[in-house]
Each structure stands twice: as structure tokens, then as C-alpha cells.
């Protein structure tokens, strides 16, 4: 592992123009300084920017360089762990090899004195130093000369804690650990100038350790201590790129804990956390050091395998499944897991495609009874999880926030007077924006097939009569499933074609169609689950509009029929008759006149 780091540093020096800076800076040291190897010093400063290296690899490289520059026989790097205890993380010899268990010892007296005083400790000749030469560790180890210095952050208290919390970084202790070297060679005695150089070296190493720790915090899931979802996205993209460049296999395991919700419901979330920690240990203990274990999200995990074909990975998955069955988690809990496997180039040729294939295989493993391993095959291409919230929540906080904000916007639009109409246009515009598509269209089915209701280009200008791939749309409407395929324009440009059906009550009532140029990224497979969630809302709103429109038409038709009803002869005669009240009033008037004439007589 150390050789890989030094190869990396050698390439880095070559890329930066060799060792010219080394010659220029030798003037800072005395002419008789035989150990002024500035290329090694350059190696240390280069490690400050080597964020993609594992922290353990960085620590080993730093210790090796320190041994080389000081002329020490052995070197130790001890760091403060999460329980505030010193842990020997590295113990190396002059051959850049890790010391054996019987040699993994140092002078604890010297280390404790460095921590107590928070100052560098320098012992040129431990034999003549009566103050410490008689301690048991010095006698047993036969040490002749030693140096030890605390790795301390200067002015750490000046950094506001609120800022560290803001970026999800846990505060680092002011004292990170100690750097220790010793010599058993009588001819090699550490001089005062060695201490000055050692102190300068420790400052650089402290910075490198801080960088490595912060990088680890930024890329590691704190609960499982595996790589985070964000780091997984980076690692799989790089892994697929390298695999395609070298024509080497690259495989992925997606695994999901079976019935994990029951653990949380029945035993509490603390018990669930302990299970997640145990799972992290199981994965790391049963794969190689070069295999990359990640927490994908919740109770789902992923493992990346470079230069390993699907057959080899299937064997590893079976081994892992057995390890799950045999492991007892804290609280006397047992969990099993289901595994889905896919690989490049057999099952996919992109990172998104690889994840989709492994996820489909995982879904089949769970559907077939859980606690089993499934390798992707073509008949699984139609497998899809029935998750109403698919694609909305993820470990990418920024994307999750945007998705939730868009859903809230959808709800507000739905509550507006023109809700359904505006919602369809909104969904289309947002999909074009998210994919940077050249254009997109909303299609709705009718008696004569389907028609374009609205279409926009990338600048959100409406376009008329867009050229739609009818074969793709027909297949999507028939299968009621989304598709994302490569295509080509008449002028030869490579594009991505995406069609998402609008399905309501099992019926495809339309589709959203997008075209994007592959040269500027194309449409990512990972966006489809969220787009399908939006499409479901659009489909339901369009179905509601159709039902409302249909009822209004039926009511109007019924009303027009009532108005056109022919008149009957009886109705016409009734209308022509004089009103009974009018006749009664006339008779009363005539009677009154008759009575008046009688009185006059």
C-alpha cells in the first residue's frame, strides 16, 4: 500500500517539473546536512492535497518519510481516538514495512512526557540520561536515542464551534496525537538540529493529519463508518470511467437489510443504530482492502469491486450473506440481507445503469423471499420498486431539498384555479430545466391516438409541431413504463431520448417526452424515479380534468335536450284559455252592478 503512495508522489513530482525546487531550497540548510532530501519534504507537502487517499495510507506515508529524513530506526504515529485515548495507528521500520506485533512497542514514558508538557522531547543519549534511562520500556527496547513531539493544532480555540457544526464537521481536539521516532544504533544520535527539523516536520504532518481527518469526516457515514452516499457517487463514476478506459471488469453489490423496520419498531432506534454499526463491521471484515464499502442510504449498502467480474463478486456476496446469518448484533439481535449484483461491461455501461441493474436484481432477491443473492439478467429489466416516495429523498441533501421544494410548489399550483393546466406545464418546464434538455413536450391521448398539448425549448419558448419519436412514445404508452435510450438527430448529433408515461388508475393517458444532447451530459438515469413521481401527480390532475370536463359536457347535453322538447296540443290549449281569476273578477263586477240597479228601484 505504501509503494502505491510513493508511486503517486513520484508521478506528482514529475508532473510538477521534477526536483528543481529541491535544489533551490538546499541553501536553507548547512552544506554538511547529508539528509536534506527535499524531494521527500516535497512528498509531505504533496500529501496535504491528496484528499482522495485513505487516511491510513497517508499516515503510513508520512511516517515512512519521517524515518527517512531523521535517520531513525523506527517511527510511530499515535492519534487520539474517539474515547480520548492514544491509539498507535502506525508503526514502521526503515524498510517501509509495518512492525510485527512483538515490535509494536515504544517508550511510553517519553510519550507521556511530551503530552504532559505539550513540548517536543529530545534525547540524544538515553544511556547517559539518568532521568529516564532506567525506565522499563527504555531498558527492554534497548533504545539509544529518541524524539517525540505532540501533534497540536495551534490556535484551534479561535475557530467558532458554530461554524464547524454548520459544515457537519465534528470539532477536532487541539492535540491530535504524537509523532515518535527512536534509534537503536549507537552511531545514530539525534542532534539538536535534528530536533529543529523534526519540529518543522511535525507541523506539516499535523496539517496533513487534520486534512485527512476532515476529508474522512466529509466522506464517511458516521454511524456505519463506511463511505457516505455522496462519496459513493464519486467512487462509482471514477470506477466506471477507469473500467471503460482499461477494458477491465467493474462490479457492484447493492444490499438491503431484511425487515429492518421491525428492529426499529420493536427495539427502538438505538438498537437499529447498533445494527447499522455491526453491518459496517461485517462488510469491512469480509471484503478486500481495495473493495469500497458505502452506506447508500437507510438500511441499504453498496460495495464497489474494481477488476472483479460478476462471478467473483457473487462468491463474495454468498460469503457476506452467511456472515450476516452467523452474526449476533448487540441486544441479541440477528438480521439477514438481500443482495443484488451487476457488472460492467456485461450488464451496463454507465454508473447510473449499473446502479439501476443492481437495484433491479436486489428487488428480485427481496421479492423471491429475502436472505438471498441475485445477479442481474435481461428479464429483470422491467423490475421496479413500488415506492411512492422514490427519488424524492436521498443522501444528497441539496437534491432532496430541491425535490421537496418542487413538490410544495406542485401543491400550491394544484390549489390554484387553473391547477391541472398549470401543473402539467410546470412539470414539463422543471424536467427540461433539470436535464438541460433541448426541448420537451406534453402528450395527451385522445380518440385518434395522442397529440402534443404543449412543448417548450431550453429557453422555455413554446414550440410548434416538434418531431417526436413515435416508436418510443407508442412503446412507452403500451408498456406504461418509462424509457431512457440513446438516439441520433437527422444531422448526426447524439442525443438521449426520455419518455415518461402519465398513468392514472392503470391507464396511460399521455406522456412527457424529452430530448437532450449527449455531448452536454444527456439525461441521467438517476432522475427518472423523481420524474415518475411528478408524472403521477400530472396524470392524476389530468384525469380529474377529464372527469370534470366529461360531467360538464353531459350536463350541458342533458339541458339542451330539455329545451328542445316539442310542445303538446294540450299544453297549447291550456296556454290559450283565459285565466280563471280574471273570469271570477268579471262576474263579481257584473253582480255588483245588478245590485246597484235594484236599490235604485
Compute the number of strand runs. 15
* Average pLDDT number: 78
Name of the CATH class of the largest domain? Alpha Beta
Whole-angstrom Rg: 39 Å
* CATH superfamily label of the largest domain: GAF domain
Q: Quickly give the CATH architecture of the largest domain.
A: 2-Layer Sandwich
Helix content bin: 40-55%
What gross morphology would you assign?
A: elongated
Q: Which stretches are low in confidence, meaning pLDDT under 50 for 5 or more residues running?
A: 12-35, 156-172, 571-575, 582-590, 597-601
Strand order of the largest sheet: 2-1-5-4-3
| Number of separate helices | 19
- Terminal CA distance: 145 Å
Query: Any idea how many domains?
Result: 3
Secondary-structure-derived class: alpha+beta
Describe the structure.
The structure is a single chain. With 601 residues, the protein is α+β, with helices and mostly antiparallel strands. The chain folds into 3 domains: 2-160 and 169-219, Beta-Lactamase (2-Layer Sandwich), CATH 3.30.450; 229-380, 2-Layer Sandwich (Alpha-Beta Plaits), CATH 3.30.70.270; 413-548, Beta-Lactamase (2-Layer Sandwich), CATH 3.30.450. It has 19 helices and 15 strands. It has helices spanning 2-15, 20-25, 38-47, 55-70, 108-117, 136-141, 161-166, 192-219, 229-246, 260-267, 269-285, 310-326, 351-367, 397-414, 419-435, 470-479, 528-563, 569-576, 580-600, and strands at 74-80, 86-93, 121-123, 145-152, 175-183, 250-257, 292-297, 300-306, 337-344, 373-375, 439-446, 449-457, 483-488, 494-504, 507-517. The strands form 3 sheets. Strands 2-1-5-4-3 form a 5-stranded antiparallel β-sheet, with helices on both faces. Strands 7-8-6-9-10 form a 5-stranded mixed β-sheet, with helices on both faces. β11 (439-446) and β12 (449-457) form a beta hairpin. α10 (260-267) crosses α11 (269-285) and α15 (419-435) packs antiparallel against α17 (528-563). The longest helix is centred in the C-terminal third of the chain and has 36 residues, at 528-563. It is elongated and about 120 Å long.
